[in-house]
Amino acid sequence: MPVNWDTNCINDITTDVSHMTSLGLESNLSTAATDKIFYYHRGIKNASPASPILVLLHGYPQTQELHVVPLLRSDIPLFIPDLPGYGRSSPLPGAHDKRSVGTAILLALTNLFPSTFRPTVILAGHDRGGRVCHRLAVDATHHPTFDIRGTVLLDIIPSLTQWKSFSTAAASVRSYHWSFLANVDLATDIIMGGGGDYYCRSNLYRWAGNRNASAAMEKFQSHNAFDVYSNAFKYEHVVRATCDDYRAGAFEDLQEEEEDQKAGRKFDVDVMFLYSSEFLGSRYNGEEWRVCMGSGNFQEFGFGDGVGHFIPEEAPENTAAAILGFYDAHK
């Protein structure tokens, strides 16, 4: 479904750009309107099998990873895009299924190196970004120009497991947005009617842990994160595209996972699963991921101390340490 893209979103608020570029990253802010995908990058020219590109993908309702990057070593090549339709990135001309989203992200990455170069990459994604990583990793053989070494999945379970859990009333209420947002036209009208920025902020508070701990919330809101995230949701194209992300999660993505299981398509790369013990971990069993494992190895770590759904923002030090450990083991 084509969505009109208001390119004013690119330069509307740029405090996040100042923060990220101060860390030694470059952005394509000046060419984002042409490139379609907005991204930050660092050290791509130095990438090699011994120094893979770390691709960081954010979740809903956010944009690029603001909190983990300062804790990553400066020698690690980075590629950090806004998912299509989120933040400054253009919506896709068609559906926002994870295969199409992942392909668009890899295509944007290929523009940063010669066509003869086959980059080695490690994927790490939170929430919706994690679902893109899931699809890319299972589809690794569909992307022969990339050597996908492994993926880190943050605070998600397989979509099939998620949808099946809604057979209970409590699970349906907790994750109301899965079915609400999937009704794209209705959800877009309601969210815009009440203010997209308000809806974004309300969900940030709803899914965070330690809501009464001022230090934790101060950490989450650092770098003007709440302003950056919520400002993007003032734009109807962002609201509509992110709703289509969830619509695809109920249809194309779910069908692809079902077909994976029937055909025996699984993770043939290593997977690390990070989750919030008191949020996702209290409702689901991370062992659900083992059903999706092929020849790859699986490991999981839970974060306690009241950490909620937003692991990269609420526990950036532990998140960065886990990602670094996985990265170093796969370079």
TrEMBL record:
<comment type="similarity">
    <text>Belongs to the AB hydrolase superfamily. Epoxide hydrolase family.</text>
</comment>
<dbReference type="InterPro" id="IPR000639">
    <property type="entry name" value="Epox_hydrolase-like"/>
</dbReference>
<keyword id="KW-0378">Hydrolase</keyword>
<dbReference type="Pfam" id="PF12697">
    <property type="entry name" value="Abhydrolase_6"/>
</dbReference>
<protein>
    <recommendedName>
        <fullName>AB hydrolase-1 domain-containing protein</fullName>
    </recommendedName>
</protein>
<feature type="domain" description="AB hydrolase-1">
    <location>
        <begin position="54"/>
        <end position="245"/>
    </location>
</feature>
<dbReference type="InterPro" id="IPR029058">
    <property type="entry name" value="AB_hydrolase_fold"/>
</dbReference>
<dbReference type="InterPro" id="IPR000073">
    <property type="entry name" value="AB_hydrolase_1"/>
</dbReference>
<dbReference type="GO" id="GO:0016787">
    <property type="term" value="F:hydrolase activity"/>
</dbReference>
